[in-house]
Design brief:
The longest helix is centred in the N-terminal third of the chain and has 18 residues. This protein is α/β, with parallel strands linked by helices. Helix content is 44%, strand content 13%. The strands form two sheets. An eight-stranded parallel beta barrel has the order 1-2-3-4-5-6-7-8, surrounded by eight helices. Helix 7 runs parallel beside helix 8. It has two domains: 261 residues, Aldolase class I (TIM Barrel); 93 residues, Recoverin, domain 1.
């Protein structure tokens, strides 16, 4: 078991989330932060979007941040020219793989094979690293996908990227598909690009790597079009915690990275979002808090400090037990007698009846002082 190669596409696919448009300064700050935590490859934009996009990409590429910079391109010579102008290290060429996408573009498989033969050769003349994408591969026939992959490998592309474009794979399908491709195409790197339409992007990215994929695409906070992409912080921590394998990344900077992208994108992170959500390390249940006061591992998979977060937070509410209430009273210099705790507990139950939001600091102070 080893950690996969992480390709962060926050600045490309992440920015495709409706209404998200990073300024040049914002994109550069995000790229800097991603490089600082050790992400080895950044897909930094789509140069075919025009001069402003090319200049934004060129600024990042010229900074030599210590990671590979990649441009996303359609199957078009003009896109390759634009990628050259952006100054990136590598290029990703995307081809439709499924009949659905081919029909939508009024193309056929013969066209894909002809264009791939021409464009991969052209791209290899201009870039040291060429990645080729099979878009909507999860809905493409496996025999056709293997044939396309064989051609791409024979042309000398460095990586074949398999995309679950509309997020329909479940982890068992994903694992089987990647395992079959890995066996059929041993002489080319395999990458995966997963979407979260059914809530399985992270799981699919993780099992794809387990099945033999060399690289996984991720975005910070899972940012992306529709329901988003596999979340960088989730995939990284799955590797670290579920696999017990080092990702090689600076985990203590993940929280700051998440908050940076949250601010720049204007997309708030849901409080119960895994790893980086506000509630990811909050505890209210009396049974949980009682156990965690003795051993914090009781009800959380890893310490929040690994992410650069503060300590776990015990939230006082309807489900709080006597141990949590005693701790709250002690923290405030109040006597934690059994009678005081029972009185506080009764008032707390009345106060939280029908309430959806956690109690504020002022609410708690009022409850303590009222007794």
């Amino acid at each position: 078991m080893k950690s996969p190669w992480f390709v962060d596409t926050t600045l490309r696919d992440g920015e495709q989330a409706p209404g998200v448009a990073f300024s040049s300064d914002q994109a550069f700050s995000i790229a800097e932060k991603l490089a600082a935590i050790g992400i080895p490859e950044l897909e930094i934009g789509t140069p075919a979007m025009g001069p402003a996009e090319i200049e934004k990409m060129r600024r990042i590429a010229r900074a030599h941040l210590g990671c590979r910079t990649t441009a996303w391109c359609r199957a078009d010579e003009r896109d390759i020219d634009a990628a050259v102008a952006s100054g990136v290290d590598a290029v990703h060429l995307s081809f439709p793989a499924s009949d659905i996408h081919l029909n939508a573009l009024r193309k056929n498989r013969a066209w894909v094979l002809e264009r791939a033969g021409h464009l991969v050769t052209l791209a290899k003349e201009r870039f040291g690293y060429v990645s080729v994408g099979a878009q909507d591969a999860s809905r493409a026939p496996k025999t056709w996908l293997r044939s396309f992959g064989r051609l791409v490998a024979d042309l000398g592309a460095a990586r074949l990227r398999i995309a679950d474009t509309v997020g329909i794979w479940d982890p068992t399908q994903c694992h089987a598909s990647i395992r079959e491709l890995r066996a059929a195409l041993p002489d080319i790197e395999i990458g995966v690009h997963t979407h979260d339409d059914l809530g399985m992007a992270t799981a699919n990215a993780v099992v794809a790597a387990r099945a033999g994929a060399d690289a996984v695409d991720v975005t910070v906070n899972g940012l992306g079009e529709r329901a988003g992409n596999a979340a960088l912080e989730e995939v990284v921590m799955a590797v670290e915690v579920a696999w017990g394998v080092s990702s090689g990344l600076a985990l203590d900077q993940l929280m700051a990275l998440s908050q940076l992208v949250e601010r720049c994108s204007g997309r708030s992170v849901h409080r119960q979002k895994a790893v980086v959500g506000k509630s990811a390390f909050e505890h209210e249940s009396g049974i949980h808090v009682h156990a965690m006061l003795r051993d914090a591992r009781s009800y959380q998979p890893f310490a929040p400090q690994r992410l650069g977060r503060g300590r776990s937070e015990f939230v006082i509410g309807k489900h709080s037990g006597r141990a949590a209430l005693a701790q709250m009273l002690t923290d405030r210099g109040q006597p934690a007698s059994p009678a005081k705790i029972e009185d506080l507990r009764e008032r707390l139950l009345r106060r939280t009846e029908g309430q959806a939001d956690p109690l504020t600091h002022q609410d708690l102070e009022s409850l303590v002082t009222a007794g």
